[in-house]
Amino acid sequence: MSDTEQRGTRTVEWRLSAVTSPRLADPVPVVTAEDIPYITDANRFQNLSVYLPWTPETSALVGTPAESLPGVEPGRPRIQVHVHGGAWRDPRLTARSIEPTVAHAFSGTGRSAPIAAIASLNYTLSRFPTHPALPYDPIKDNHTDPSREAVHPQHVSDFLHGLALLRSFGLTDGSYVLSGHSCGACLSFQSILRPPRHYGLDHLPAAPIPAALIGLNGLYDLPELVTATGLGESHAHLRDDYEMFLSNAFGADQRAWPAASPARFDPAEVAEQVREGNAPRLVVLEQSAEDQLVPTRQRELLTAKLSEVDGLRVVEGNRCTGKHAAPWEQGDMIWESVQDVLRLLQQED
Ligand SMILES: N[C@@H](CC(=O)c1ccccc1NC=O)C(=O)O
Question: InterPro entries, per this entry (predicted)?
């Protein structure tokens, strides 16, 4: 292993690799640094990966330690940061799920890509005692895997530690677009629209502020996911699954769920964050009408709530179609959505 031990965290070197998308004929070469820990004595999910397009400049980085994000421009959105989904519990859905999107973003060889880097974060998961192949129950398994025992607000805490590492790599306010899929969308909106103190995380630094937030097939109103009206007829059969994984991720006391739900944030408080420059002015919400896991009502509720926020532009995107996982599995939809956001941001300049 070429990694070197340092201060209880690992330094990871840039290496040449390739990523694929089912929608592209050929693998796309990239320069990547994978699984960079963002906290001392990290568990196996407290890390992030960075992907760069393969260019003469980035080739020169291969074999050197990944310590900065090349191509950051102050105040210009040149970076995408992504948070994966998986119901806060699926160990098979990781930061690598952004790779098909990376392939689309960096497939135009010779042309300079509109963004300079894509970072993708892992975070500690919650228990998943009923996973068909990889079940984990803290009591039965005698706490052998802390990387699968998170309870809210640990997911937010991990994500903020990850953004703090990216800040030390050069990420600044306005220099990136933040995307999240499913529970990753929930985590992004939780972490950016409310300050750390909302979760009792006052000891953590606030995140660098993204230029825009993109929610993809996201979960935004947790109490509604366990009610008949919230789920609707099409998704009513998922009630017990939702109740199980939301209880594992947020605690069984459902009185704590509203404060953790982006669709229930106080619009006046979010407006104050926007006014002070501590939250983005643009939010794009993507929701596939054919999503078999997330009811479209989740997006409707968040659109309605965030439309009450003075100074915030809320746009319903139309790039996501097909099943719940299609956006990250195929990559092209997420990349189209990021490009839409870059265009919307340009219009505002
Ligand atoms: N394979 C996943 C399914 C899943 O991710 C999921 C299921 C229902 C509603 C939302 C989901 N994902 C959100 O992150 C699981 O069962 O953990």
Answer: AB_hydrolase_fold, GDXG_lipolytic_enzyme, KFase_ver/fungi-typ
